[in-house]
Design a protein that fits this description.
mainly alpha
Length: 395
């Protein structure tokens, strides 16, 4: 190679522009802000405000957390540094250190103060640091080239708190204490939440898929169908639950046999109807879109082979449209898992009972105990639907 060519190459390397990683910088910013917020709060009992301990003030752990956040920030600013550091490994270390700080130092400070009914409540800094770690791990999972790099971080995220809980190290945490005091009721409310949420998604699928197919087939149905399902999404969730109460109460009073079937103004029936109506839009929209994007040539080929309209729908259109259709069900399912929490306000039960009970009592740990399972259920539902969609696409 000529000297001029070598000079050009060296100059290109020298003047190469390094683009900061905005997502990593965002995670670092969250982590930096979290260090100044309470990592945990020491409480004498479940109702008092307690003594907050900021992340930077945690003995032994504050400098470690600061160093990890600095590494994350450098990794986001300089691409070369990011390559040298495995961000998923850094995120896992941050995750482990956060749990170690709250379990080790938090419980030690609780013992030093001699609170017989005391507990440790995770603070805003703890949740933000965990969020920072989760953002980094999710970014690196998309970039990971090997199965081990994808599986190990996720396994640690799940295994660590489960192992700490099984070993009893989390018994002094406020939301764990609330759970241990309500194990039987928690199981009942979780079952009610699952039945209500996934029952509503199933009902919305049974109604929404034919509506989407009908809107695709018949142009005259398109405007009224989408006007109705779009309008339902504009109604606030609590208002829609409330709108179900009056007509159902009137029907149950006029027709006593409906009360014997469990159809009343409050309870599962209005919650089920409201959730089903809310779940319609993603399913109807994706059912319509999935059929609309099919190549007309495929339909013509099937028609040329002598297929009837029903055969085309069953053997050609639905198989091609199924991944997009299931994506609508996925969005609807995740949305409904969260919306079901509001159903507790009209007596339908579910995990929302703990959330609203905690709000009424001013018990933040009880609120967290209700919110965490809802978030976990939403994430698991999303992951499961992604697996199903991936399997359908491979077939």
């Amino acid at each position: 190679m000529s000297d001029s060519g070598m000079t050009d190459t060296a100059g290109a390397r020298k003047h190469r522009v390094v683009v900061p990683d905005k997502v990593v910088l965002f995670a670092a910013a969250i982590g930096g802000a979290a260090l100044y917020l309470p990592l945990f709060v020491i409480k004498e009992n479940r109702l008092v405000s307690g003594i907050p301990v900021a992340g930077l003030e945690v003995p032994g752990y504050g400098p470690v957390l600061s160093a990890i956040v600095v590494v994350i920030g450098l990794s986001g600013v300089v691409a070369g540094v990011r390559r040298r550091f495995a961000l998923s490994a850094v995120a896992v270390v941050l995750y482990v250190v956060c749990w170690g700080a709250i379990v080790h130092t938090g419980t030690s400070m609780l013992a030093e103060r001699g609170y017989p009914f005391g507990l440790v409540s995770p603070g805003g800094g703890f949740w933000l640091l965990l969020l920072s770690a989760l953002i980094l791990i999710s970014v690196e999972l998309k970039r990971a080239g090997s199965a081990i790099a994808r599986v190990v971080p996720s396994a640690i995220l799940i295994a660590l708190p489960v192992a700490l809980l099984a070993a009893g190290y989390l018994d002094d945490l406020g939301f764990v204490r609330e759970y241990l005091n309500r194990v039987d009721r928690f199981a009942r409310e979780l079952g009610a939440h699952l039945r209500l949420a996934f029952g509503a998604v199933f009902a919305a699928s049974v109604v929404g898929i034919p509506l989407g197919v009908g809107a695709w087939r018949k142009r005259v149905l398109r405007r009224p169908v989408f006007t109705v399902v779009n309008s339902l999404q504009t109604v606030p969730s609590l208002a829609l639950f409330g709108l179900m109460i009056a007509p159902l109460a009137l029907l149950s009073q006029r027709y006593p046999f409906l009360r014997e079937l469990g159809i009343r103004g409050v309870g599962n029936t209005p919650a089920f109807l409201a959730l089903s109506l809310y779940a319609l839009l993603p399913i109807v929209r994706n059912a319509y879109t999935s059929l609309s994007v099919i190549d007309p040539g495929v339909i013509l080929a099937g028609t040329g082979m002598g297929m009837t309209r029903r055969q085309l729908l069953r053997h050609v259109e639905i198989p091609i449209a199924l991944p997009i259709l299931l994506s609508g069900v996925r969005v609807s399912a995740v949305q409904t898992v969260g919306n079901t929490a509001v159903a507790a306000l009209i007596g339908a039960g579910g995990l929302g009972n703990f959330v609203f009970q905690g709000l009424n009592q001013g018990a933040s740990d009880l609120i967290v105990m209700g919110v965490i399972p809802i978030v976990v259920l939403a994430v698991l539902t999303d992951r499961l639907m992604l697996l199903i969609i991936g399997a359908v696409r491979r077939e």
